[in-house]
Amino acid sequence: MNAVAAAARPIALFDMKAQQRLIREELDRRIAHVLDSGRFVQGPEVDELESKLAGFAGCAHAVGVSSGTDALQIVMMGEGVGRGDAVFLPAFTYTATAEVPLVLGATPVFVDVEPGTFNIDIADLKRRIAAVKAEGKLRPRAVIGVDLFGLPADWPAIERICAEEGMFALDDAAQAFGAALDGKRLGRWGGAAALSFYPTKTLGCYGDGGAILTDSAEKAELYRSLRTHGEGKQRYEVLRTGMNGRLDTIQAAVLLCKLPLFEEELRSRARAAGWYADRLGGKVQLQQVRDGAESAWGLYSILLPDTAARTRVQEACKAAAVPTGVYYPLPLHAQPAYRDHHAGRPALPVSEMLCTRILSLPMHPYLDEEQVDRVSQAVLSAL
Ligand SMILES: *Cc1c(COP(=O)(O)O)cnc(C)c1O
After folding, report:
1. Which CATH number fits domain 20-109+117-257: 3.40.640.10, 3.20.20.70, 3.30.870.10, 3.40.30.10?
2. Residues spanned by CATH 3.40.640.10 within the chain?
3. Topology given in CATH for the domain delimited by 262-381
4. Atom of ligand 1 nearest to the CA of 96
5. Side-chain half-sphere of 55: how many Cα atoms within 13 Å?
6. Which long-range contacts (CB under 8 A, 24 or more apart) does 274-279 make?
7. Any idea what DSSP says for residue 334?
8. Ligand 1 centroid vs 157 CA: distance in angstroms?
9. Fewest Cβ atoms closer than 10 Å to its Cβ: which of 151, 189, 240, 294?
10. Given the CA of residue 70, which atom of ligand 1 is nearest to it?
11. Considering Cα of 57, then 223, then 90, then 309, what sign does the dihedral take?
12. Residue 49: left (phi > 0), alpha (psi -120 to 50), or beta?
């Protein structure tokens, strides 16, 4: 493709337009159906979506909720997590992971991540659980593992530690729906998995939405109650303190239109990741995919040698009309809202290092090889 034609094909960091063109008629039909039915909350589309999500992940139950954050919160409420509880989570993740324990009165304990996978470091997790036990002030209650950028965390190890310590393992799979580990899709790891359908996630709706996946029928019923104000089997019977965490019918309808494309979109993301690896591997550090893991490639993130190199690459990309993003500029333990909770605890050097060097490149299912080439050339031109 020549430069003029290339300029006519702008590259998006996330592309929701190409997909929408493919399903626009079906979207219009499905949304019109919801408008006609008038069942805007908990309509039949929500039930249909729940059974299809569970089928896709290979787990027994899916519970549609209002966002990924609410999915995390409902699971933690279901475990009774609250004051006096320690919830262990990586320092290098989106803010929602830490916000949820705090909203419930629990204390987040930040854990460092691995320099290769960017996911929670199991040795550091063990050290921090031991330290909390030795202090004797907080009860170790849960680990929230995050599948950062779509890559599954070390779930066999997290599950083992949680079983040994009597803790709950919650999978924050908000960036990773569709990913698998050892042949099992996320949704079957940990006690429950939280999904986000925020528009830029691997499966996104046109607003906020989320879901909880679990194999436990009892927990699924509890989550359904919690998302509807703690309601019992009878309407207006309140069994427990819950919240308003329902998924809108229109968002479920949107997701039902997108789900038939999803399997193929995951393959397209993996193909784009392969093109990047061919061009950038050995020249910049890539996220290392652990053995047995299939990433959902929610984001494609590279590590530059230092902040100055990252700034140069960002500028070269900008000049080439290639959008980039920094996920995340600050580790959570350094955020003004959270740093007091980390006071007195050992440093998190890998999380801090990653924030100074990480850069995310365009990643979506509708990237073609020429576009990946253009992005890679812009990156390499600045090194
Ligand atoms: C997006 C995200 C969430 C929150 O999901 P929302 O649907 O935006 O509430 C939680 N955790 C991680 C890791 C995320 O990336």
Report:
1. 3.40.640.10
2. 20-109+117-257
3. Aspartate Aminotransferase, domain 1 (3.90.1150)
4. 10
5. 10
6. 275/369, 275/372, 275/373, 275/376, 276/300, 276/361, 276/372, 276/375, 276/376, 279/372, 279/373, 279/376, 279/380
7. G
8. 23
9. 240
10. 9
11. positive
12. alpha
Q: Find the helix or strand (DSSP H, E) in which 180 lies.
A: strand 180-181
Stretches where the chain sits below pLDDT 50 are 1-2, 5
Question: Across the chain, which distance is largest between two alpha carbons, in Å?
Answer: 66
How confident is the model over 259-300, as pLDDT tens digits? Answer: 999 999 999 999 999 999 999 999 999 999 999 999 999 999
pLDDT of residue 7: 55
Pocket residue to mutate for ligand 1, from 67, 69, 102, 149, most atoms within 8 A of Cβ: 69
- Mutate which of 196, 255, 297, 328 for ligand 1 pocket (most atoms within 8 A of beta carbon): 196
CB 100 within 8 A of CB 329: no
Q: Give me the pLDDT at residue 207, please.
A: 97
Pocket test for ligand 1, best of 89, 95, 97, 147 (most atoms within 8 A of CB): 97
Closest residue by CA, ligand 1 atom 1: 174
Which ranges in the chain are annotated with CATH 3.90.1150.10? 262-381
**pTM metric for this prediction:** 0.97
Residue nearest to atom 2 of ligand 1 (CA): 174
**How far is the C-alpha of 226 from the C-alpha of 239, rounded, in Å?**
9
Residue 229: partners with Cβ closer than 8 Å, 6 or more residues away = 238, 242, 243, 244
- CA 228 – CA 58 distance, rounded (Å): 25
| Residue ranges around ligand 1 (CB below 6 Å) | 67-69, 93-94, 96-97, 146, 172, 174-175, 196, 198, 208, 210
Distance CA 235, CA 233 (A): 6
**Element (DSSP H or E) covering residue 172:** strand 168-172
pLDDT at residue number 16: 86
Q: What is the pLDDT of residue 1?
A: 46
Tell me the C-alpha distance between 299 and 313, whole Å.
17
